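Let's practice the habit of predicting before peeking. Look at the sequence and jot down your guess about where helices and strands might fall. Then scroll down.
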Amino acid sequence: MSRWSEFLLVLPALALYACVPDVHRDPEVRASSDGGIHAHGVVRDPAGRPIPQARIQITGPEIVFEATADQRGCFDLGRVVAPGSRRYDFTAVASGFKLATTKVSTGEDNLLAVTLQPETSTSESAVNYLSENPCAASRR
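Done guessing? Here is the structure:
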């Protein structure tokens, strides 16, 4: 088969791929899509320093999705799940820090600020919702 024939076979697939929205990067599609779960944001210590390599998980009866925070403490985790409105467990943890947990929902833009407390702290780790993504500007 010639290279030209191979190209003609692949061209329709490329055209279709270009038309399908990237659910994990397009906030409007991500927040409104039925059957998707997505969480993104940043993991920091109590002083506001990023915690690179923090482990992020979304879990439920039929799923376990994992990601690792980058050098800026930023994470972006999402997948397609069965359609419907559901809540899943979100956890973040790093070596030397206490676990942080909350619930995240399908069909919502779960933009989170995670503050992990040191294991020796008397305070608990916390997860708060954000209105703006601190990682968005530096990712582009």
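How did you do? The chain has a mean pLDDT of 82.
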